[in-house]
Amino acid sequence: MDFVAITSCPAGLAHTPMAAKALENAAKELGLEAKIEQQGAMGLKNEITLDEAKSAKFLLIGSDQKIEKMGRFEGKPVLRVDINMCIKKPKLVIEKCTKAVDAKLREQ
Amino acid sequence: MKKLLSDWKGYLMTGISYMLPIVIGGSLLVAITKILGLCFGITSFDTYTSGVWYYVNQVTNVGWTAIGLLDLVLAGYVAYAIGDKPALAAGFVGGAIASSSNTGFIGALIAGFVAGYSARWCTEKIKVNEKYESIKPLVITPLISTLLVAVISAIILAVPLSWLNKSLLHWIKAMCTNGTSSVVLALVMGAMIGSDLGGPINKAAWAAGNVLLAENVYTPAMITNVAIAGIPLGYAVATTLQKNKFSSELIDAGRSDWFMGFIGITEGAIPFTLINPLKLIPLNMIAGACGSATAIILGAQAKIPPVGGIYGFITIHNGWAYLVGLAVCALIIGAFAPLLVDFTNTAVDELSTDDKNIDITFE
């Protein structure tokens, strides 16, 4: 898994699924394997399992909200991005995050 | 500093997102029973001590009980957003104190923050012997965070905050009841909703309206509801009336905008607005402002917490005025958007490879 992502917005009805879909399509176009979880009004949708979390290189959070079940991602690089950016420029968001994570991992 | 403010906004939004279902559930119960009564010519259930209307009245009262929980839930989940599960207890307590000491939403928010940060501090900073690890979430954190909330909310801030709360509410209430200033309020809040469609300005207006519900001040929320539903409806109207002026993707988006407008989600207008934000954002703002102001001028009043969307009119006194406001907002967009912008070419602009304004932060 190249990365996992979680989207969440205050009402959990509009931005959450829009951003999730945008990221999913962008990952596909970039040839990356990704799983996008939605934390919206219906609770957790397309939930990331512990195994998937472990195999992912990083977690991308498209939200300024509280994210549930962060315990799954202990030790992973976690990035936060504005959810609007995930909708507007999903590809660039993924690329920029991947680069930032690579740079950070190299430092360590 | 910027990080801190955006954190705080996130905490506030989390609190509100947990509060909303309670507002909606409660208000709809009150509204539906009231309408049921009105259908049979009954304006007050208080005189009924038995029979069907007595039970209907019980349902109304349950609705009010739900509405009464707003401070509690707001404070609890603001605390939860900051300090996770251990903060929830002190947050609830703080919210209950805010209700009982009349410090209202300001008191609830402060209590939520105190509870959240103190619980987080306990979790991170207090070290106990591993053998007694379980004592921390079970005893130490609830004790310290609740005690701090008690000292700060019930002792130190109770008097000044309740004064501040009262004066602030007095001012807002005066603004909502005075004819001219309520129209100004509607123009400003309606335009804010239309400005960035779910971004910070939109959410600031929306949050203000929602937080004030806990104070029995319902007009601002009603004002925002008009623009919130009217703007996506505008694009639904535009795509329905002038199909040939839109690409097939946008016609699909327009179809879902009927639904978005019906339940009241401004974000439905985003796919359209993105085509040409420079022209469409001002249009959205003007439409939102005019729609909200129309509803106010025609005498729409919120006497119980208003529910958003088209069906929200049942919670509004003079609901027809609310509907006319919606129609005005929708028709302005429906008429002018296709004139101003060419919607037939909708290739998403990801050509610009400028990622400078994408802010990413590591946690």
UniProtKB/TrEMBL annotation, chain A:
Keywords: Kinase, Phosphoprotein, Phosphotransferase system, Sugar transport, Transferase, Transport
Domain PTS EIIB type-2 span(s) in chain numbering: 1-99
Pfam families reported in the protein's UniProt record: PTS_IIB
GO MF entries: kinase activity; protein-N(PI)-phosphohistidine-fructose phosphotransferase system transporter activity; protein-phosphocysteine-sugar phosphotransferase activity
Entry's EC annotation: 2.7.1.202
A single Gene Ontology CC term: plasma membrane
InterPro entries: Bacterial_PTS_Sugar_Transport (IPR050864), PTS_EIIB-like_sf (IPR036095), PTS_EIIB_2 (IPR013011), PTS_EIIB_2/3 (IPR003501), PTS_IIB_fruc (IPR003353)
Gene Ontology biological process: phosphoenolpyruvate-dependent sugar phosphotransferase system
Gene3D superfamilies named among the record's database cross-references: 3.40.50.2300
CDD domains, per the entry: PTS_IIB_fructose
EC category name: transferase
NCBIfam families assigned to the protein according to its UniProt record, in alphabetical order: FRU (TIGR00829)
Name listed for the protein in its UniProt record: Fructose PTS transporter subunit IIB
Species of provenance: Ligilactobacillus ubinensis
Organism lineage string: Bacteria, Bacillati, Bacillota, Bacilli, Lactobacillales
Automatic annotation (TrEMBL), chain B:
InterPro entries: Bacterial_PTS_Sugar_Transport, PTS_EIIC_2, PTS_IIC_fruc
Keyword Lipoprotein: no
Positions of the PTS EIIC type-2 domain: 8-350
Membrane topology: Multi-pass membrane protein
GO cellular component: plasma membrane
Domain of life: Bacteria
Localization (cell): Cell inner membrane
Main location class: membrane
Alphabetically ordered keywords of this record: Cell membrane, Membrane, Phosphotransferase system, Sugar transport, Transmembrane, Transmembrane helix, Transport
GO molecular function: carbohydrate:proton symporter activity; protein-N(PI)-phosphohistidine-sugar phosphotransferase activity; protein-phosphocysteine-sugar phosphotransferase activity
Transmembrane stretches, start-end: 20-43, 63-82, 89-119, 139-164, 217-238, 258-275, 281-300, 320-341
Family matches, as PROSITE patterns: PTS_EIIC_TYPE_2
Keyword Transport: yes
GO biological process: phosphoenolpyruvate-dependent sugar phosphotransferase system
Protein name per the record: PTS fructose transporter subunit IIC
Record organism: Ligilactobacillus ubinensis
Native organism taxonomy: Bacteria, Bacillati, Bacillota, Bacilli, Lactobacillales
